Amino acid sequence: MDNKKLFDYVKNNIVHLNNNDIDSNIIIDSDIITIIITTNPIISNPSICIFEKLIDSIKKYDIIKNSKIIISFDGCLDFHNKKNYELFKKNYELFKKNIDDYILNNNLSHNISTIYADKHVHQSNTIKNAVKMITTKFAFIIEHDFEIIHDINFYSILKTMILYEKYIKCVRLSLLEHIYHNNNIRSDIFYPDSIVINNINFIPVINWSSHPFILNMTYYKKKIMKYIHEDSRTYIEEVFNGIIHTNISEDHSKFFKYGMYIYAEPIENFIHLKHNDGRGNMKKILPIFKYGNKIPKYAPAEFDTYPENIKKEVLDTYK
């Protein structure tokens, strides 16, 4: 696929609105968007410190701080090692209880609801389970171990997604600061340039990502849900990216069928997220914990920030 040709097609075929075309009565408030937080068993369970960081970061933004939140819990992965499975499941059940207590103690029952998978269904189906409960036009989908660290104009993003609904279906936040990373074009960007739409820099992309994103729910329900089946126990990108690439490479106009972009504001440095990585590399972590109280090589990135009692509990559990 000729990446520049695709970029030019996208850039040249967006019909920009002038002020006379913009409906001044558009209402953007917390009722237009639902937040989905996906969660699964992680090495820091039963601690909810990572979850609290996410909630605290959401509360900083007027548009979303009062939006309904759905926490979608995955089931526990059945390890071949029965001891690991039982301990992991026990900690996960305690984690769920701690989340319930947090909601109750902070008087958030009116704002936060929970949904539980009865078996391991992975990210794609935890999202799908929550989507069935959504009636708002948009969803902000974020995993439990992300934290928003940069100013994000949710109002402008949502307004632009309404005004340019024909072209923009999904807007992703960024974990990296700009188009280039380690002197190379980022792997999730097909061409190193942005397009200004409604005074916002957007970078068109053709790869789905698990990084947090704002999603047009009509688009998701019509174009994506049909590809996610009960046995799709993986990330959405593994289900969906091959389909996207095939369709767009055959016909550039189909880019707008998917309409995916990275929010690139401010263009000089648009890192929006911190990944607290509560999971780490599970396949490598579990065997390595047998080395006692030595912090394992593959410990989660934020392991050192956990309270001492939690660190000890995690290490002791998986000796």
For the record, the count of structural domains works out to: 2
CATH superfamily name of the largest domain?
Spore Coat Polysaccharide Biosynthesis Protein SpsA, Chain A
Count of DSSP strands = 13
Q: Level of helix content? A: 25-40%
- SSE class: alpha/beta
Q: Mean pLDDT across all residues, rounded?
A: 82
Major sheet strand order: 3-2-1-4-11-6-12-10-9
Q: Shape, please? A: globular
Low-confidence stretches: 281-302
* Oligomeric state of shown chains: single chain
Q: What is the CATH first-level class name of the largest domain?
A: Alpha Beta
Account of the 3D structure:
- The chain has a 9-stranded mixed β-sheet, with helices on both faces. It has a two-stranded antiparallel ribbon with strand order 5-13. It has a two-stranded antiparallel ribbon with strand order 7-8.
- β9 and β10 form a beta hairpin.
- The chain is 35% helix and 16% strand.
- It folds into 2 domains: 277 residues, Spore Coat Polysaccharide Biosynthesis Protein SpsA, Chain A, CATH 3.90.550.10; 39 residues, no CATH class.
- The chain has 11 helices and 13 strands.
- With 319 residues, the protein is an alpha/beta fold.
